[in-house]
Amino acid sequence: MDKSLQGKIALVTGADGGLGTHVTQALLDSGATVIGVSRTAQPSSSDTPSFAALSADLSSAETAKSTVDGIVARFGRIDILAHLVGGFAGGKTIAETDAMTFQRMLDLNLNSAFYVLRAVIPLMRRAGTGRIVAIGSRAAEDPGPGVGAYSASKAALVSLLRTVAAENKDLAITANLILPGTMDTPANRQAMPGADTSKWVQPASVASLIVWLANDAGKDVNGAVIPVYGRGL
User: Which is deepest, 108, 158, 199, 225, by most CB within 10 Å?
Assistant: First the structure.
């Protein structure tokens, strides 16, 4: 069994989502200790010694900082950040989109990443190493009608992660972004009951890519924006 991440401490945000459960398990299978954070996480939800669940709303700057500080106080460091937090809103043109919806997309898809990155990067810089992987969306580079707020927030996330990569390339810290097409999650199946799911991206495939980017095999990949479109290309 692959234990390439043995001894590493991984923070997974959005850990109990349709993708998050796969990423958490893939990291655990690779030997990492995983701290899974989400708004609905139950601290007692797992009896696995190498997994801890924390409940936090990372769209708050103060909560993101205190959550990261608490993890470091308990585990000593954060070697890997897999930022999966995100949300979707669509169905309206830009002219029809209300300000609250637009702000909600920024909070979920951009601001949460900024707050977590701002808390984690100084830790990694002091350690001289770290792996950061975030999940964006195909819509970031291929926007369509009716999803303007969502697409804009995901496009901004691309710029944010590329900047993080450039600002930390002097050390052994990498920052990369994965842009999946529609993923085969329970939430997407419920939202699109008539869709052809055979072309959807499997969450396990994205989870495997995150693990690869997090270990030594992916050390030379930095600032990459990686499309994962599957058969939906």
Answer: 108
